[in-house]
């Protein structure tokens, strides 16, 4: 059994209304929605990652700079991205079927894995001395 802590969070009225609306549409409690939202936005701990992901991230350390830049610039397949967006929108309208829910979970995991690979590529490039973020520009 997972231990839980209770916290009190003060939300601006428009955010509370949006959270309530999304929870109702998805037939879940506000608490469940907020827990899921927080869990999805938190970066995973290395120990939370599947072993295959940990192995790939470890192997990335030996990649060339060019290979890391390629990974850093990669994106999710356009068809997968479109399917993910469609399922996410559909979920707002109605409860997903079991197959749709499974597909959504699979696509969300693939999107998370893709972002994790990109983040690790940027991290490694920064450690190698590259500037990985554009310099801010002043618009005066």
Could you characterize what this model shows?
The radius of gyration is 19 Å and the shape is globular. It starts with 12 loop residues before the first helix and ends in a 13-residue tail after the last helix. It is mainly alpha-helical and 140 residues long. It has 6 helices and no strands. The mean pLDDT is 86.
Main beta-sheet annotation: none
Question: How far from one another are the termini?
Answer: 56 Å
- Provide the low-confidence segments as ranges: none
Helix content range: 55-70%
SS content category? mainly alpha
| Mean pLDDT value | 86
| Cα radius of gyration in angstroms | 19 Å
Give a count of the beta strands, DSSP E runs of length 2 or more: 0
Q: Provide the succession of SSEs.
A: HHHHHH
The dominant shape is globular
Proportion of residues in β-strands: under 5%
How many helices does DSSP assign?
A: 6
Key descriptive features of the protein:
single chain; 140 residues; mainly alpha; globular
Précis, in short:
By secondary structure, the protein is mainly α. Helices cover 63% and strands 0% of the residues. The chain has helices spanning 13-25, 30-41, 51-59, 65-72, 78-93, 98-127.
């Amino acid at each position: 059994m997972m231990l839980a802590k209770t916290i009190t969070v003060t939300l601006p009225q428009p955010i509370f209304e949006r959270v309530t609306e999304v929870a109702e549409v998805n037939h879940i409690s506000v608490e469940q929605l907020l827990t899921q939202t927080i869990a999805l936005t938190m970066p995973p701990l290395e120990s939370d990652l599947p072993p295959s992901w940990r192995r790939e991230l470890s192997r990335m350390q030996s990649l060339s700079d060019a290979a890391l830049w390629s990974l850093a610039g990669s994106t999710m397949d356009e068809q997968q991205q479109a399917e993910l967006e469609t399922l996410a929108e559909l979920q707002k309208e109605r409860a997903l079927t079991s197959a749709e829910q499974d597909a959504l979970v699979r696509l969300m995991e693939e999107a998370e894995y893709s972002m994790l690979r990109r983040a690790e590529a940027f991290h490694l490039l920064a450690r190698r001395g590259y500037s990985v973020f554009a310099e801010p520009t002043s618009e005066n």
